[in-house]
Amino acid sequence: MKKIFPLPRTEILIFTGCLAALVWAVSFVAAHNRGWDARVYCAAAEVDRSGGNPYDPQLMPSSLPYVYPPGLLPFISWLCTSALDFENLYGFYYLILVAGTVWLWTPGHQWPVASLFAFGGLAGGVWTFWTGNLEIFWLVLVSFFYRAASNQRPAWAGFWLGIAAAVKLMPAVYLLLILLLPGTAADKWRGLAVGLFSMAFVWTGLLALRPHLIDAYLASLQLSLSGMRGPGAEYGSFDHPAFPYFMAALAGVDSSAGDLVPGFLMSLVVALFLGGLCAQKLRKEIPDSYTGLLPLALGFLILSLCMPRMKPYSFVLLAPSLFILWNHLHATRKTWFLLVTVAYPLLAFRLFYDGPPILKSFLPIIYNQPLAMLGGILVWLQGKPLSDK
User: Fold this and answer.
1) Interatomic CA distance for residues 270 and 248, integer angstroms
2) I need a surface site. Which of 131, 142, 214, 244 has the fewest CB within 10 A?
């Protein structure tokens, strides 16, 4: 039987501590109101069945509008039938989906650590289970993307990521990462073209399934995009912990009163700097024959630093990337990586709610997810050459 941990006494101790932090965070979720996004989805399906407009918050019981493409409503309506009871049983379905996605991007003997990243990495899984958000379905598509990429099939990788981008536009930026896949330039560009085509095709189809809701959806999309600038903009908080907001707060810029351009530009500078360091390290330490997914995983994390629409549950999409980085570290660095990307955000999640009130204004607590992601990249940069692994 293969060893799961190369240093049992050290790594098993750290793994157990991270697992305890996960249980501590989940215990809070289990004891409090949860699943509000799932209730919004089912309410939207009910409004749609009655001929109403689910994008109108006044017609929604919770006053929270539906925000996804209208063609997704038939699928949501099916999930919310009494037989499936998604509103109350979504946690069970998510558990099955997460277990399945781990299988897609994990060698069998490493499933315990991969599962830890899927459920607790950057606290994204905890937030997803708490809110009932559909982000788990995007994780499934991203996992198929990684599976296709590991099999060196750029066209299929682009196909899966294109579908994810059609339903939730944020992953569209990740399509550029197809150019980092191993293979010929022609295969990479073909994969990117397939991704863009599948995104456009699926997005158009999702609109065509509910043509009477197209205008309402586009208006909702425009409102969502404009919500990042101007008075009343979404501002950085525990519920909106994107890295650009952290940079704005660090520089003393009040993003709630203006726009996010300063924070975005500062985060872009950080991302470009880190990208340059990572590229330099990869050129020095990875042989030309390397066909792995490390550049892709780093690209996912670095691009995510620039995204102002990263919600707490959005970080669950980065679980495969975290596992790949962890798997390319020596044992001593692996323990630090687990502490930074799993234990820290999970403890911060629980401390924000149950800790002293002063912690609610403490930046490393509020912005724990992007800082944990940044910390994970820095831990990898400090690691020894892969050839010594």
Assistant:
1) 13
2) 214
